[in-house]
Write a structure and sequence with these properties.
The complex is a heterodimer of chains A (113) and B (115). With 113 residues, chain A is an all-beta fold. Chain A has no helices and 12 strands. Chain A has strands at residues 3-6, 11-14, 19-21, 23-26, 31-38, 44-50, 56-59, 62-65, 75-77, 86-94, 102-103, 107-112. In chain A, the strands form 3 sheets. In chain A, strands 2, 5, 6, 10, 11 and 12 form a 6-stranded mixed beta sheet that branches. A 4-stranded antiparallel beta sheet of chain A has the order 3-9-8-7, with no helix packed on it. The N and C termini of chain A lie far apart (41 Å). Chain B is 0% helix and 48% strand. Chain B has no helices and 10 strands. Chain B has strands spanning 5-7, 10-13, 19-24, 31-38, 42-50, 65-69, 75-79, 88-95, 105-106, 110-114. Chain B is globular, with a radius of gyration of 13 Å. The chains are: A mainly beta (113), B mainly beta (115). The interface between A and B is medium-sized, with 24 and 25 residues.
Chain lengths: 113, 115
């Protein structure tokens, strides 16, 4: 079946530290991969995506590269800010009409100044 | 423009009662999804609508759950005879189409508490 595994949190960092949140997946076919973010008190927002192998998604200083050989889509940011504190969800969608997003369990990031 | 809206934002109900949760998708979005976010299970897909096609109900956890989408727009998720394990945040999302290149836009959710 299709599934997403992401590192368990919480992840606690100081401002300007380097961030990595690991995400690996299992999928039939060739999925598209996503990172969603949920800021405190807000709804889920798409952070970035990649639709094929070796694609790099990027947004707001965050990056993730679609690695087919390791079935991974790790999220990275070079210098985190307090405002990045949120819950981050890795997700996949199989290239098949009508298939919903499959999410990982989420990783809570807390950044302190 | 307006995003996905959901109502109510919070709902507290007694065990055994029925509840209805409403979702207003972004205008023009043909695809509409319901998900459930709970502490133990993370984010789970419940049901999906695409245009006038029959909905994909494969994620519904029991026959107490049902959903409809009227006129290809507003959707209502109904939970009958609520149980405490139904307590969760129910999220609605819509997208222009089902292809992976189309982003799913999420509403703020309805927090359901069953006492």
């Amino acid at each position: 079946g299709n599934s997403v595994t992401q590192m368990e949190g919480p992840v606690t960092l100081s401002e300007e530290a380097f961030l990595t949140i690991n995400c690996t997946y299992t999928a039939t076919g060739y999925p598209s991969l996503f990172w969603y973010v949920q800021y405190p008190g807000e709804g889920l927002q798409l952070l970035l995506k990649a639709t094929k192998a070796d694609d790099k998604g990027s947004n707001k200083g965050f990056e993730a590269t679609y690695r087919k050989e390791t079935t991974s889509f790790h999220l990275e940011k070079g210098s985190v800010q307090v405002s990045d504190s949120a819950v981050y969800f890795c997700a996949l969608k199989v290239f098949q009409a009508g298939t919903a997003l499959i999410f990982g369990k989420g990783t809570t990031l807390s950044v302190s100044s | 423009g307006a995003g996905v809206s959901q109502s109510p934002s919070n709902k507290v109900t007694e065990k055994g009662k029925d509840v209805e949760l409403r979702c207003d998708p972004i205008s023009g979005h043909t695809a509409l999804y319901w998900y459930r976010q709970s502490l133990g299970q993370g984010l789970e897909f419940l049901i999906y609508f695409q245009g006038n096609s029959a909905p994909d109900k494969s994620g519904l956890p029991s026959d107490r759950f049902s959903a409809e989408r009227t006129g290809g727009s507003v959707s209502t998720l109904t939970i009958q005879r609520t149980q405490q394990e139904d307590s969760a945040v129910y999220l609605c999302a819509s997208s222009l189409a089902t292809d992976s290149s189309y982003e799913q836009y999420f509403g703020p959710g309805t927090r359901l508490t069953v006492t």
